[in-house]
Amino acid sequence: MSSSNEAVQKKGSTPRIEVIERYCKGCSICVEFCPTRVLEMETFVVQVVKPEACIKCMQCELRCPDFAIKVHTE
Amino acid sequence: MAYDYEKSIRPGKLPHIWCPGCGHGIAMKGLIRAMDTCGLDKNNTAIVSGIGCASRLPGYMDYCTLHTAHGRAAAFATGVKMAKPEMNVIVMGGDGDGTAIGGNHFIHACRRNIDMTYVIFNNFIYGMTGGQFSPCTPTGDKASTTPYGNPDPIFDISKLAIGAGATFVARTTAFHATQIDKLIAEGIKHKGMSVIEVLDDCPTTYGRRNKFRSVVDMMKRLKEIAVPVAAASKMTAEQLEGKVLTGVLYKEDKPEYCEQYAKVIAKAQGRAV
Ligand SMILES: Cc1ncc(C[n+]2csc(CCOP(=O)(O)OP(=O)(O)O)c2C)c(N)n1
Ligand code: SF4
Ligand code: SF4
Ligand code: SF4
Ligand SMILES: [Mg+2]
């Protein structure tokens, strides 16, 4: 299966943000459109750095051209 | 809830071949959501394309698919629809495929008002073959074949479709991601020829040559140039300079081609019409 860096779920309302690293092409779209700076680029693959700041707007998932990021809200 | 795109994609087909930041992926997701909204049956829905980066899309989709010759998608799709009028037919492809080599098939499919949904991914360039200018490359912009700037005026695909007789015409951009599925879904539900133009981006062969610093810059540009039709009616010609209208641009009910053709068949067979 594809490797993924899944953010540790810290509290009930923090979603699990899944990045499918094998699909991510590092375009930065999700990083730029995230309103709360949850995501950062690191050597061409996106990293989830501040999952607790996620407001579940789904912008990253909606805009990713590569089916590489998913926000699991429950 | 994370959106389940995988159920619509053939197992093992991802990652797709499109470049980092290529808008075709965003448009594809919109198409998947629209097909879900309309509840299209995989076994009764054909997705037909020509050749180009955009036209690679059917290969990923777990539907009945047809990847044809460059520019010929509308012709093949017409054949599918005529042979199986009960099938949902989605045609898709790039601006080059649909309006250059395939321009003739495109306008005549519009003229016939055959019940298909044609989604054009307009990235203003021939992406696949290295960035030659297409009929949609903005005047003055650079392509591999217009190194001093493109002297040609463009085809406005939506206007062309309306002029040629399509009965549902809409336009949006890869920036307006949620509008993509809404407009395609409306097009699918419309009986007759629907054309949905999605302006997107080719960072590799168009963005680099035309001074876009990043994919995000290209997204912002799409946001800037788009004006919803309702807002445009209150704007002056000067304010509309360089803008493109988005939303449903045209909608009309007219006799559909397969139904008209069925009458011809009935007549020829001596059956009452
Ligand atoms: C008959 C024929 N002529 C030319 C080509 C070369 N060719 C392949 S794709 C393409 C243009 C694709 O541009 P577009 O439809 O805009 O798709 P994009 O790659 O930009 O998504 C051309 C000229 C071909 N495959 N077949
Ligand atoms: S859902 Fe919104 S807030 Fe959360 S990571 Fe994605 S873009 Fe950022
Ligand atoms: S938008 Fe998708 S492909 Fe681009 S960096 Fe984010 S996860 Fe990766
Ligand atoms: S060349 Fe352009 S259109 Fe083709 S995959 Fe790359 S970015 Fe997309
Ligand atoms: Mg193109």
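qc> The mean pLDDT of chain B is 97.
qc> done
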